[in-house]
Amino acid sequence: MSLTTLMPQRNSVRRWLDKKIAKLDANPTSPDDWHPVIQEFLTLIEGDPILSMDCDDMFKQIPDKSRFDWSPEEVPQVRDYKHMLSLFDHILNCSPEWEDNSMVCYPMQAILDWPLHTTAGQAVFSNPLVNAQFKKVFNVWAEYLSSCDSTYVLTKDDNGWLGPSAIGEPSADFETTFVCDPTDKHYGFKSWDDFFTRKFRPGARPIAEPDNDAVITNSCESIVYRISQNVQANDRFWLKNQPYSLEHMFNRDPLTPLFVGGTVYQAYLTSKSYHRWHSPVSGVVTKVVHIPGSYFRIYPTEIPDDRPDDLGQTVCSHASTVLIFMEGDHPGVGLMCVMAVGMIEVSTCEVTVQKGARIRKGDELGSFHFGGSTYCLVFRPETELVFSIKTGDKALLNTKIAQAV
């Protein structure tokens, strides 16, 4: 995909940010007006002279043009760290928005678009105290996104998440596919998160060959990103355009050596995707691991992405990850792992199964809340697979993606 294709989406984000800044500038706020969690952020910055200096510098430095696919303007939209914090304070009472026939699903990423790509910004967003403070901010934002106030973006007009540009036409396809109430103003969704984690109607995604344990199905409504074989413990395996190895992916879990030399199937979700995960095989859950991540940290070796939906995701490490290890009933499958990666800002991984649970293929395993990005199926080297899909394919939930030999 060319840069000219990507620019309309980025321009939409910049227009959206211009509107937010104009609104804030017309009714400026002082730190005394901010939410306590944003006031705490200011105290953190100004209480550390090095952090304060870096926060000043990241709005003065020119971003490294080699790190991303667009050329920065001479002046950043967000002027300084207090301006940044005032925008954060505003966002705490805003839902991710859809406008100009485009998604603006990662507002804080948009606010940080300039400073993220500076040397000073790298220092700021790699600071563990800053990462911990972002977590506090996102916990507050998550409360709002779970409230009825967050439904104001769930409208049927052109700039609403239920409008034709967001859900497609005819709207009847959405209504018959997802559990919702078309007679209600917000289709029956009680909050932004309720909409984001909406469920399929029974039968909307039939399970491929449910009684054939050799058949492996897609765990998420997603697009195939890559199928990697002979993945090594410390090799350069790219996960969401960032260098990962099995040891990084599994956070050096004791089970990691069992998967060295194996296969990783990776697929990504878009903002409009169904955000629940389902089991690709029948078997028993043997282990569940929660891995906390970081926010807004750029990797020096990151490579450009070519998907508009991922412009806000490729520059950041994962916020949270869940590993669900399962022992497949089919002997050719054996031990495998479902890895769900929450990316960007407030994203949260919720697991709905426990160790020891017997799972049938297609059963729900958990969901992304507020955000999400990608998932992987990881198989041991003993598991020989014949894949029926390829990179770039759109794979519906519960469709066949491979078969164990």
TrEMBL record:
<dbReference type="InterPro" id="IPR022237">
    <property type="entry name" value="PsiD-like"/>
</dbReference>
<dbReference type="GO" id="GO:0004609">
    <property type="term" value="F:phosphatidylserine decarboxylase activity"/>
</dbReference>
<protein>
    <recommendedName>
        <fullName>L-tryptophan decarboxylase PsiD-like domain-containing protein</fullName>
    </recommendedName>
</protein>
<dbReference type="Pfam" id="PF02666">
    <property type="entry name" value="PS_Dcarbxylase"/>
</dbReference>
<dbReference type="GO" id="GO:0005739">
    <property type="term" value="C:mitochondrion"/>
</dbReference>
<dbReference type="Pfam" id="PF12588">
    <property type="entry name" value="PSDC"/>
</dbReference>
<dbReference type="GO" id="GO:0006646">
    <property type="term" value="P:phosphatidylethanolamine biosynthetic process"/>
</dbReference>
<feature type="domain" description="L-tryptophan decarboxylase PsiD-like">
    <location>
        <begin position="35"/>
        <end position="167"/>
    </location>
</feature>
<keyword id="KW-0210">Decarboxylase</keyword>
<keyword id="KW-0456">Lyase</keyword>
<dbReference type="InterPro" id="IPR003817">
    <property type="entry name" value="PS_Dcarbxylase"/>
</dbReference>
